[in-house]
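The protein record quoted for completeness.
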Amino acid sequence: MEWTSDWIRVWFFPRTNIPSSITSGAPNITEFGIPRANFEMVALNETANCTIDQRFAHHQVIFDTTLCGAWAGEPSKLSPETPQTYSHIP
């Protein structure tokens, strides 16, 4: 995720395709491709001076990682349609 005064952008990478700059601890967004979400402030006219900072100052971003409507790791909550191919690590 990248949060600046002009935009909030979110990328997703499968575990098998994480950019090397992330795994090396120095993320480089030029390697990431097109973001999955791009919330960019666009001025409606020359006098409009809206920024992400003004409109999202008191917001937090929360990534919900639940699976099939239940907390991940609760096999009793998975529906029959959900593939049950995970391993539970206590």
About this structure: The first helix runs from residue 20 to 23. DSSP finds two helices and three strands in the chain. The two ends are 29 Å apart (CA to CA). The first strand starts at residue 2 and ends at 3.
